[in-house]
Amino acid sequence: MSASHPISTEDLELLALGVLGGEECQEMRTHLSSCEECARNLAEARGRVALLSLAAPAQNPPPDVRERLLDKIRSAEIPAKKPAPARPARSRPLHVPARWWNTIWVPATAVLAIATVLLWITDRRIDEQLRQLQQQTQTYEAQARRAQALVSMLAAQDTKTVSLAPTPRVPTAWARVKYNSRMGMICYTGDLPAPPPHKEYQMWIVPMSGSPVSAGAFMPASFNQGRLCMAKMPEGISCKSFAVTVEPMGGMPHPTGPMVLTGAGL
Amino acid sequence: MNRALDTENGASDWLLLERVVRKDESALAALYDRYSGLVYAESIRILRDGSAAEEILQDLFSQVWRTAEKFDPQRGSLPGWLLVAARNRSISRLRRNHSRPNDELTETSVVLPCTLETAVAQNQLLGRVKNAMSSLPNGQREAIELAYFDGMSHSEIAARTGAPLGTVKTWIRTAMDTLKKELT
After folding, report:
1. Is the CB of residue A55 less than 8 Å from the CB of residue B130?
2. Chain A partners of B44 at a C-beta cutoff of 8 Å?
3. What pLDDT was estimated at residue A222?
4. Mind listing the pLDDT tens digit for each residue in A127-136?
């Protein structure tokens, strides 16, 4: 990424994967339409992402699909190879009086055409509404599952609570973490000032051995005022401590920024 | 196995495409035999509907037959294009989106980091992808699968899984990073 090529390889992969929101995509596409180098990089990113298709369970198409394909292309080629001879033009009188049924079927056809278009538009609207309702239902179901999981975790006897203490960078900050290693769940609440521009806070689990594991990036708006952040954590992990750092938007795979909160696990 | 079949099995995609341009049916059949399994498996995983996946498979290879002369092998690979176009069309159909994605052979360049021209190469890569996916933590694997096979955005995945948006972004970025290291 540079000033003249402002899109990183990672962002091109996210674009190829199709996970970015509309505004982010639009900005990138505007640049890609005029930058050959970035367009080439996007083609490579598409290739890396396309390999994910190989994670699908192996399935071969039924044998008759191949035969139907070959029949289809043969039948499409025949007219091209043997064009039908052109018919001699019929001599027609210039002024033929309209037949009486033309006065009926012409308007009837027009009405049918309009009705077809209206039905098609209605069908598309219904499809869109259905899709939105399905999406809403999925969201509600996910929220219900999440709430149920949270209640189960808070009620479990082996759920532990850790208070995180502020570092000198933000002396007024605080947070409380509840976690259950057996259930692989962690939730936290607290109060933090707004992070620097283009930054987020990120919660880390520091295991007894190995590198810190991310438990999610968040903004204070979703963190204070009694709201909980809830995330999954590796099941069975032994927590040595917890920490909150300041990271670029979207979070990082490993901590890179300054620590603002820390606390020992139990 | 006869000699003609041996020749087709050993021919590069580029040579087969040249023969498709000259309307050689056996070349299209060879390309179909080479890639139909990958394309069909991807579509059926997305759509969970065999007849819809067959339709997409036939459409794609018909398009190769009709417009092979437009394909520029310098700008991308045929299997890459087939996999990307199959995914786009399947997700479009899944979402009941009536407009066809813009995936003409000339419009969508895809450069695969490896060859898929032989069954051996395909099987080796299949094993590596499956191993890499199974090495991901559950959250990351679920997020990547929802993104790739269900065509969901970051925010849609957050809504589906109940995880915070920032966490979903981290999962996807970390998973892509891991897969890239494992597969290239």
Report:
1. yes
2. 56, 59
3. 53
4. 888 888 887 8
Residues B176 and B184: their CA atoms lie apart, in Å, by: 12
**In 3-state terms, what secondary structure has residue A243?**
strand
Tell how strand A239-248 and strand A199-207 pair up. antiparallel
Reading the block at residue A44, the tokens are 């490579």
Give the number of A-B residue pairs with CB atoms closer than 8 Å.
214
Distance from CA of B133 to the nearest CA of A (A): 7
Kindly compute the dihedral angle of the four CA atoms of residues A43, A49, A51, A53, in this order, to the nearest 10 degrees: -120
- The single-letter code of the amino acid at B125 is L
The structure's pTM equals: 0.59
Tell me the three state secondary structure of residue A7: coil
The verdict on a CB contact (< 8 Å) between B110 and A145 is no
What ipTM goes with this model?
A: 0.89
3-state secondary structure of A232: strand
Instruction: Write the CA distances from A48 to A24, B126, B148, B179, integer angstroms.
Output: 21, 14, 12, 9
Q: Count CA atoms closer than 13 A to A104's CA, side-chain side.
A: 3
SS3 content of chain B, % helix, strand, coil (to 5): 75, 0, 25
Token pair listed for A8: 């990183």
Tokens of B60: 């794609």
> What CA–CA distance (Å, rounded) separates B70 from A102?
46
